[in-house]
Write a structure and sequence with these properties.
The structure is a single chain. The protein is built from two helices and 17 strands. It has a 17-stranded mixed beta sheet that branches. The N and C termini lie far apart (about 95 Å).
């Protein structure tokens, strides 16, 4: 009985030694497999028409959009549907970054719609655009340091980087905002007709 027990312990040690050898030879594949699911949560879907890239990858038509993805519409257009219902459309020659609860327009034209008061925030240049009603939609054009915000439904607060509210816009309102130097908040100016 003792010999059988020590043979079992020897077999367990050999199995453990083999397992440790395998783990030492292949640790990157185990770590890499677990990393993307933690840092790259799925936000929703993307539907592309024409030449649209997510990062460096050409979008084949439809796909999943993940947190941290950067969408460049080049000569195409894209519609991003967040899982929580918010929808963002990017016109051609637009560039935007996507994160949970946040969209940052870097250039071009973005149209967004919210369907609930879920706390989505949209940014253009240094401006923060915060929907004030559950159903809000707006067209935002960013050209250099100038952002035009036209609200088509609901209400929207426009907030400077300092946290100062620059404007409260309602459906039908359109304003042009110019980026101010980083030491002072941006100041609104009327939109030209």
């Amino acid at each position: 009985l003792i010999k059988g027990g020590s043979m079992l312990k020897l077999a367990e040690r050999q199995l453990l030694a083999v397992l440790l050898c395998v783990l030492m030879v292949n640790p990157p594949s185990i770590v890499a497999a677990s990393t993307p699911s933690v840092s790259r949560a799925a936000l929703g879907s993307i539907a592309a028409s024409g030449s649209v890239r997510v990062g460096e990858i050409l979008v084949p038509g439809q796909g999943t959009l993940f947190s941290g993805d950067r969408v460049n519409t080049n000569s195409g257009s894209a519609t991003i549907q967040y899982s929580d219902g918010a929808r963002v459309q990017l016109a051609s020659e637009s560039l935007a970054n996507f994160a949970p609860g946040r969209v940052q327009l870097e250039k071009g034209l973005m149209t967004f719609q919210t369907v609930s008061s879920n706390g989505m925030v949209f940014s253009a240049s240094t401006l923060r655009l915060e929907p004030s009603t559950a159903k809000s939609s707006a067209n935002v054009t960013l050209n250099g340091t100038k952002a035009t915000v036209a609200v088509t439904e609901g209400r929207l607060k426009v907030v400077a980087p300092s946290g100062v509210q620059l404007a409260s816009l309602k459906a039908g309102d359109s304003r042009l905002f110019e980026e101010a130097p980083s030491s002072s908040p941006a100041s609104p100016s009327p939109a030209s007709a």
